[in-house]
């Protein structure tokens, strides 16, 4: 899994969310199959409703007073500072954007970023070969503890404080852990419906975690649900971009994160992926995949403008940079087998003022409610 910056087993929670993995695997007799997109959108609606109930009359999220976790205030401040250092090291452009946010929101986003990165490292880091389902269960239990105000270490303490102050729900965090479980047991996806659910788990969840912290502009007339749906679209688009960029790297690990049915329709197979040759069939296949990723980016753009003014810049910076990765794939003649598409430092620097200018655009009068894939 490649964490896109852009965690319970399945989608079940104390709020009676449906267990999507079970619905997918075991539909009841005579039941019409529901797409992953529709099921994930149901989660989006419920997540949005949780926050909507906690909005103040000014449409701003109410930030609770800071609580002091085990230790003292200076240790908690040190924990947040460490999260900021990690974010600055691994997501430099995004980090610069967070500096325009209010101190409370900035630190909270750092804490969420670090937890997501640590979760991703479980299956994609140096010790990934030693990670077992039991280890994932322990990580989930640890998540539940920190949500109850009992953090295990300094970095957990920062997130524990964050979820105590903002209306952040545990469901997206648990769903991300479920995405890690999928990586332990699944290396092929038969169609986009399956891949979409995976992208939601490992990246779409980040948007659902972040919106309650970033806040929605008091001037926005968009529905809370539509803003959440756009945040989901950004996570999906980032993850699809990661997948297209890392085809060769994943293939060397025996993984193919591409819809098997669409590969077959293009006259391709896993053997072609492992051979790593750029052919006309591969180029045509990649063109269709890039077109889909850009569609999700387009949908995501509609929601960024609706965020709180002080929170838009880092999101715009992330979105613009990830979109450029698709441009670089095209510039490399779709060779993602032996070439890694990346955005140069110069282009990154140029993206910052562009992102800032976009962040100054006021919210639109209305945001479409439902995205169609």
Automatic annotation (TrEMBL):
The keyword Transmembrane applies. Keywords: Carotenoid biosynthesis, Isoprene biosynthesis, Membrane, Transferase, Transmembrane, Transmembrane helix. GO terms for cellular component: plastid. InterPro entries: Isoprenoid_synthase_dom_sf (IPR008949), Squ/phyt_synthse (IPR002060), Squalene/phytoene_synthase_CS (IPR019845), Trans_IPPS_bact-type (IPR044843), Trans_IPPS_HH (IPR033904). The keyword Amino-acid biosynthesis does not apply. Pathway: Carotenoid biosynthesis; phytoene biosynthesis; all-trans-phytoene from geranylgeranyl diphosphate: step 1/1. The chain crosses the membrane at residues 195-216. GO terms for molecular function: 15-cis-phytoene synthase activity; geranylgeranyl diphosphate synthase activity; squalene synthase [NAD(P)H] activity. Its EC number is 2.5.1.32. One of its GO terms (biological process) is carotenoid biosynthetic process. It catalyses: 2 (2E,6E,10E)-geranylgeranyl diphosphate = 15-cis-phytoene + 2 diphosphate. It is an enzyme of class 2 (transferase). Belongs to the phytoene/squalene synthase family. PANTHER family: BIFUNCTIONAL LYCOPENE CYCLASE/PHYTOENE SYNTHASE. This is 15-cis-phytoene synthase. It comes from Cicer arietinum.
């Amino acid at each position: 899994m490649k964490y896109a910056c852009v965690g319970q087993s399945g989608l079940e929670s104390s709020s009676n969310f449906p267990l999507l993995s079970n619905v997918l695997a075991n539909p009841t007799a005579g039941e019409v199959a529901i797409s992953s997109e529709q099921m994930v959108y149901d989660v989006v609606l419920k997540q949005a409703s949780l926050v909507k109930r906690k909005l103040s009359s000014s449409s701003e999220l109410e930030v609770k007073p800071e609580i002091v976790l085990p230790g003292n205030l200076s240790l908690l401040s040190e924990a947040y500072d460490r999260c900021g250092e990690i974010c600055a090291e691994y997501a430099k452009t995004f980090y610069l954007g967070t500096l325009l946010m209010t101190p409370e929101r900035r630190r909270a986003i750092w804490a969420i970023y670090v937890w997501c990165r640590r979760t991703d490292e479980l299956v994609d880091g140096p010790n990934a070969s030693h990670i077992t389902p039991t280890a994932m269960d322990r990580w989930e239990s640890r998540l539940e503890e920190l949500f109850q105000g009992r953090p295990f270490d300094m970095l957990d303490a920062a997130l524990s404080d964050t979820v105590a102050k903002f209306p952040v729900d545990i469901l997206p965090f648990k769903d991300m852990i479920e995405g890690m479980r999928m990586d332990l047991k699944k290396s092929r996806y038969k169609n986009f419906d399956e891949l979409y659910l995976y992208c939601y788990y490992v990246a779409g969840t980040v948007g659902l975690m972040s919106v309650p912290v970033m806040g929605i502009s008091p001037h926005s007339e968009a529905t809370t649900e539509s803003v959440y749906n756009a945040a989901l679209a950004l996570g999906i688009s980032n993850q699809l971009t990661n997948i297209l960029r890392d085809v060769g790297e994943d293939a060397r690990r025996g993984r193919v994160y591409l819809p098997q049915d669409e590969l077959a329709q293009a006259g391709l197979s896993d053997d072609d992926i492992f051979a790593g040759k750029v052919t006309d069939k591969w180029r045509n296949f990649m063109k269709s995949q890039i077109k889909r990723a850009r569609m999700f980016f387009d949908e995501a753009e509609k929601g960024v403008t609706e965020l709180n003014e002080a929170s838009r810049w880092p999101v715009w910076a992330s979105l613009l940079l990830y979109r450029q990765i698709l441009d670089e794939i095209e510039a490399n003649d779709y060779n993602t087998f032996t070439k890694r598409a990346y955005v140069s430092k110069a282009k990154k620097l140029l993206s910052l003022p562009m992102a800032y200018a976009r962040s100054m655009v006021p919210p639109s009068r209305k945001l479409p409610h439902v995205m169609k894939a």
